[in-house]
Amino acid sequence: QKEVEQNSGPLSVPEGAIASLNCTYSDRGSQSFFWYRQYSGKSPELIMSIYSNGDKEDGRFTAQLNKASQYVSLLIRDSQPSDSATYLCAVNSYNQGGKLIFGQGTELSVKP
Amino acid sequence: DGGITQSPKYLFRKEGQNVTLSCEQNLNHDAMYWYRQDPGQGLRLIYYSQIVNDFQKGDIAEGYSVSREKKESFPLTVTSAQKNPTAFYLCASSNVAVRENQPQHFGDGTRLSIL
């Protein structure tokens, strides 16, 4: 089992819809969870951090964390073509001295 | 403006040659990291450093070396022992927080190819 798993996609949604991106992790001791957006050919850009169970909203983005189920998700409301990118989930690994472990990323395509 | 500067943006390596990728940050971050990204893949950790004059191997350190002589700088050398160096190399930095891990912020990356 991979330490951080994401569906590679591509996930295709129409413009204006809600995009739902999911991530599961194996280390129950993980404390910090991050979502990065990476446009093709560019470096990752931090878009959300979440540390406690529940929802955290920032503009059109909502991160959801469920530590009991070892599950973190990112919702993008009113998706725009400019949201088309690869979204990377990153989890700190308590068992590995707090290093960030990245998932392989989910490619999102928002169709006009 | 605070940030992380990687140079060069593109780099070509000849057979048997060592090359060095530069990473400089002015965010006053304690920790710095080097990752490698292959097409369609996630990020794999090469080396990281949490304090000056100290660094640790990541998951794929073979064929690479680093130094951390200054807080602001963390250069990566890709040695001739790394037989498949073609990849996108990303440098990142973060504060080292006691209670919770701080996010990492990335430079713009260096694309390395073999001539």
Descriptive notes:
By secondary structure, chain A is an all-beta fold. Chain A is built from no helices and eleven strands. Chain A has strands at 4-5, 11-14, 19-25, 33-38, 45-50, 54-58, 61-66, 71-76, 85-93, 99-102, 106-111. In chain A, strands 2, 4, 5, 9, 10 and 11 form a six-stranded mixed sheet that branches. In chain A, strands 1-3-8-7-6 form a five-stranded antiparallel sheet, with no helix packed on it. The radius of gyration of chain A is 13 Å and the shape is globular. The N and C termini of chain A lie far apart (36 Å). The mean pLDDT of chain A is 93. With 115 residues, chain B is an all-beta fold. Helices cover 0% and strands 49% of the residues of chain B. Classes of the chains: A mainly beta (112), B mainly beta (115). At the A-B interface, strand 5, strand 9 and strand 10 of A face strand 5 and strand 10 of B.
Describe the structure using short key phrases.
A: mainly beta; five-stranded antiparallel β-sheet; 11 strands; B: 115 residues; mainly beta; four-stranded antiparallel β-sheet; globular
Class inferred from helices and paired strands of chain A:
mainly beta
**Unreliable spans of chain A:** none
**Which residue ranges of chain B are poorly predicted, with pLDDT under 50 across at least 5 consecutive positions?**
none
Q: How many DSSP E strands of chain A?
A: 11
Mean pLDDT of chain B: 91
How does the helix and strand content of chain B classify structurally?
mainly beta
How helix-rich are the residues of chain B, as a percent range? Answer: under 10%
DSSP helix fraction of chain A? under 10%
Distance between the termini of chain A: 36 Å
Main beta sheet strand tally, sense and closure of chain B = 7 strands, mixed
Determine Rg of chain A (CA atoms, Å).
13 Å
Helix and strand run of chain B: EEEEEEEEEEE
Shape of chain A: globular
